[in-house]
Amino acid sequence: MIEIVKGDYPRYWEDNKEFLKSLQQIQEFRNKLAHSVLDVSEEALNRPLEEGVGFVQWNKGVPVTDDEFQE
């Protein structure tokens, strides 16, 4: 979608570049998570939830905390 806006609506892109870049980052994050596998190893299941949830095929399994997710 972002690439279409850049190519077909360059003026709109220029006027809204910062917002659209943020939207693109959210889309990329969503796509990475959608194609990842939730880490359900013993280590992950024993970790306190406040320390985050890990994904096997994303970010090398480093847990994502709620604060990071909200950001």
What does this structure look like?
- This protein has about 70 residues and is mainly alpha-helical.
- The protein has 2 domains: about 1-35; about 35-70, no CATH class.
- It has helices at about 1-10, 10-15, 15-35, 40-45, 65-70.
- It is elongated and about 50 Å long.
- The mean pLDDT is about 80.
**Low-confidence runs of at least 5 consecutive residues:** none
In whole angstroms, the N-to-C terminal distance is: 22 Å
Helix fraction, binned, reads 55-70%
Overall pLDDT score:
82
Let me know the number of strands. 0
Percent strand? under 5%
Number of contiguous helices = 5
List keywords for this structure.
about 70 residues, mainly alpha, elongated, 2 domains, 5 helices
Quickly describe the structure.
It contains 5 helices and no strands. It is mainly alpha-helical and 71 residues long.
Question: Which helices and strands, and how do they pair?
Answer:
Elements: H1 2-8, H2 10-15, H3 17-34, H4 42-46, H5 66-70
